[in-house]
Design goal:
This protein is α/β, with parallel strands linked by helices. It is built from eleven helices and 14 strands. The longest helix has 25 residues. This is Amino acid ABC transporter substrate-binding protein.
Length: about 270
């Protein structure tokens, strides 16, 4: 009996070790290290997180974070330009290892993919035609027939627009730039989108032409997305994020926020 119990214990231990080995083989982190390359899906049209400079190079907040991440892994960083409406499918089918594209963590998306802890928290705000200044004092004043609200297709801005403005007309566009241009050109009354983008838009094209209703309508944590069933990669990402936030000596997180979310010098590189 003792020999049988011992044999069963050995068999169970071998199976556990085999499971661990199989999990490690399937780990995205292990694949990245073997390949020597971290591939990140992103949609390069969302300032200041990812955009193209005058030379066509992808730059931005997420790019710098990705390069830092790759450096800590000892691999090279490769951004994979991907249309927003297909970015989750691209991750799931293995075209990239991670989504680093200022993606809002939502319960609906979380059904398909996993998220690391938030690295930035934002909210949706509204830009309105300057002619409406005084008449529209807060976002809810726009929820009336006769008003047209624009935003980008397939983002949380669209979800919020349809939820908050059920009596107004909501129109979506392929890019945030096209949507905002509708308000600039007098073809729409308001544009709803992420707060960082709207703040930057008001320092440039919207200055003197639009009014920013800057009270966020939502709480939106942004997170890196990975495929489900990958605890190794998720653990590494959360530890990496915690280190970048808490290491005040290096202060990588603080410097990154100042470079992309507070200063606007980088605008000269993309105009």
């Amino acid at each position: 009996m003792k020999k049988l119990v011992l044999a069963l214990m050995v068999f169970a231990t071998i199976n556990l070790l085999a499971d661990d080995i199989n999990l490690w083989k399937k780990s995205t982190l292990n694949e990245i290290l073997k390949r020597g390359e971290l591939r990140a899906c992103l949609d390069p049209g969302y300032m200041p997180f990812e955009m193209k400079d005058k030379k066509g190079r992808i730059i931005g907040y997420d790019i710098d974070f990705g390069k830092k991440m790759a450096k800590e892994m000892g691999v090279k960083f490769t951004p994979v330009s991907t249309a927003w409406d297909g970015i989750i499918a691209a991750l799931i089918t293995g075209k990239c290892d991670i989504i680093m594209s200022a993606m809002t963590i939502t319960q609906q998306r979380n059904l398909k993919i996993n998220f690391a802890d938030p690295y930035v928290v934002i909210g949706q705000t509204v830009l309105i035609d300057k002619n409406l200044e005084g008449k529209i004092k807060e976002a809810k004043d726009l929820d009336k027939p006769g008003y047209t609200i624009v935003t980008k297709l397939g983002v949380t801005g669209e979800i919020v627009a349809r939820k908050f403005f059920q009596n107004a007309k909501v129109i979506t566009f392929e890019t945030e730039a096209d949507a905002a241009a509708e308000v600039l050109n007098g073809k729409a009354h308001a544009f709803i989108y992420d707060q960082p983008y709207n703040i930057l838009f008001m320092t440039d094209k919207g200055k003197g032409k639009l009014v920013h209703l800057d009270t966020p309508l939502t709480y939106e944590p942004l997170g890196w997305a990975i495929r489900k069933g990958d605890p190794d990669f998720l653990n590494w990402l959360n530890n990496f994020l915690r280190q970048t936030k808490e290491d005040k000596l290096v202060d990588f997180h603080g410097k990154l926020n100042k470079k992309w979310l507070q200063d606007t010098d980088w605008l000269k590189r993309v105009q």
